[in-house]
Every structure is written in structure tokens, then in C-alpha cells.
């Protein structure tokens, strides 16, 4: 079994290394990571069978990391490792492969490894459905077999063309697997639907303006080209932007 250890504390990672050496000497630790974003990159490089995943970490926590892993082709089994008590983890008892409470004991680690060996695709699908659907902080981009994570706050807009969705930042554009509908449902407070083919980031809206042809469009910070607003979405866009201006004014001292 190939194992990736993910924990933001180096002593905790070393302890798991030592316990694995005692409990499962046939297992190979193929990598370590100190946060969820690094864990996804390490997964892409090492393709482990099992990820021992801490829950509370900086940048991207274990739950968000697990959701991203569930989207991958041939995802690994995941065992959560946490300092939370059993009552706080009751929600994961039937859905995750297993969870280990810190300090991890050898007997529990051995039991978790046994469950991981029996883990299959059907359980991953169940885990993906049942994990709490908290919004992501990053969008995962897959390019030529590599993974990159783009922070949500850098994204200016999403645009759809046929089956493809493209995200735009001030510096780049990238194809992603998510549909506009799923993105709109996941981030209702951060992105506004302005066209059947476009979502724009509320935080980066500079102005709502008319084009020389008389159509409405949104200008976004960092993007040279404005985004067209369809007639169907124009009224809702105006109302939302008026509320946004009011909120921004209320926050200004």
C-alpha cells in the first residue's frame, strides 16, 4: 500500500511514519504534505492508495481536500486524522473509510489500514455525496496531467462554451471541469449570473456600463474585455449591484 501523510504539524507526520513502520512495514510512505493544497499536488505526483488526512489545516482543510480527491480519476482511500472527539466526528462514521483520533494508537491504525484495503469506488461516491458541502476556497485546474490550485479570490469570471467552462483571472485563463450551474449554486454570494454563459465575481466588479451598441456589460478589475449582460439577466444584475454598492458604502467609514 502506497500512503500519503497530510498534517500541518511535522511531529504528527513523524509519529505516523513511525507507527506505519511498526504496524505495516510492507506499506510505503510515498510523500508528505503540510496543507490540503500541497496534498493535492503530492497526490498527482505519487498517486497513493491511501491518504492519511488531518482535518484542521491552513489554506485548505481536510474536508475540502477530500472533496477534491473525490473528483479525481481513481481516487485514493482517505482516513481522517484529527484531535476532535468522537461526538464531533459522528457524521463521518458511516461515510469515511475511517478516522483516527490523536494521539493515534497502533491498534486503531492497523484497523484503519484494513478498512482502506477493502475500500472501493462505491464508497468514494457515497463519501463525495455525504461530505458537508461547504464552499471551496480554491478551484482545481487539471492541465496535461498536472494539478494547479487557483484561489477563489483571484478569479474574475467563469465563462461557458458548449461543454467547456473557462475561468479567468487577471493573469490567465484555464479550462475546468465544473459547470456554470454547479458553480453558481456553490458560490451564490461571490458570483453573479449575468448571462446564460457567464458568472462574474462580485468583488471585482468595477462598473455596469452600456456598450456603443446599447447593450449592457460588466467591467471587471484586471480584465481588458467587459462581460456581456443578457437582457434576461439585466434587471437582476442591476438590483444585485445596487445592493452591493449600498453594502460597500455602509462599510466605508
TrEMBL record:
It holds the Pfam family Response_reg. The modification 4-aspartylphosphate is found at residue 54. SMART domains: LytTR (SM00850), REC (SM00448). The keyword Cell inner membrane does not apply. PROSITE patterns: HTH_LYTTR, RESPONSE_REGULATORY. Residues 2-117 form the Response regulatory domain. One of its GO terms (molecular function) is DNA binding. It comes from the Bacteria. The keyword DNA-binding applies. Keywords: DNA-binding, Phosphoprotein, Two-component regulatory system. Residues 139-243 form the HTH LytTR-type domain. This is DNA-binding response regulator. It comes from Methylogaea oryzae. The gene is algR.
Amino acid at each position: 500500500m502506497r500512503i500519503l501523510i497530510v498534517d500541518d504539524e511535522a511531529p504528527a507526520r513523524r509519529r505516523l511514519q513511525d507507527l506505519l513502520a511498526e504496524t505495516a512495514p510492507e506499506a510505503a510512505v510515498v510523500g508528505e504534505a503540510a496543507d490540503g493544497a500541497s496534498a493535492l499536488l503530492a497526490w498527482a505526483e505519487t498517486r497513493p492508495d491511501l491518504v492519511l488526512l488531518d482535518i484542521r489545516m491552513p489554506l485548505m482543510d481536510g474536508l475540502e481536500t477530500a472533496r477534491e480527491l473525490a473528483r479525481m480519476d481513481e481516487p485514493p482511500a482517505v482516513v481522517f486524522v484529527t484531535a476532535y472527539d468522537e461526538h464531533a466526528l459522528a457524521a463521518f462514521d458511516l461515510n469515511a473509510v475511517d478516522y483516527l483520533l490523536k494521539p493515534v494508537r497502533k491498534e486503531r491504525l492497523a484497523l484503519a489500514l484494513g478498512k482502506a484495503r477493502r475500500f472501493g469506488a462505491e464508497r468514494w461516491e457515497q463519501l463525495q455525496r455525504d461530505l458537508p458541502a461547504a464552499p471551496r476556497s480554491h478551484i482545481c485546474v487539471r492541465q496535461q496531467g498536472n494539478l494547479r490550485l487557483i484561489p477563489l479570490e483571484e478569479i474574475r469570471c467563469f465563462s461557458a462554451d458548449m461543454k467547456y467552462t473557462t475561468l479567468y483571472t487577471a493573469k490567465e485563463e484555464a479550462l475546468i471541469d465544473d459547470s456554470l450551474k454547479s458553480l453558481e449554486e456553490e458560490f451564490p454570494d461571490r458570483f453573479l449570473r449575468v448571462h446564460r454563459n457567464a458568472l462574474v465575481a462580485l468583488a471585482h466588479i468595477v462598473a455596469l456600463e452600456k456598450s456603443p451598441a446599447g447593450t449592457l456589460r460588466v467591467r471587471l478589475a484586471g480584465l481588458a474585455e467587459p462581460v456581456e449582460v443578457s437582457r434576461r439577466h439585466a434587471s437582476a444584475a442591476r438590483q444585485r449591484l445596487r445592493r452591493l454598492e449600498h453594502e460597500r458604502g455602509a462599510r466605508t467609514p
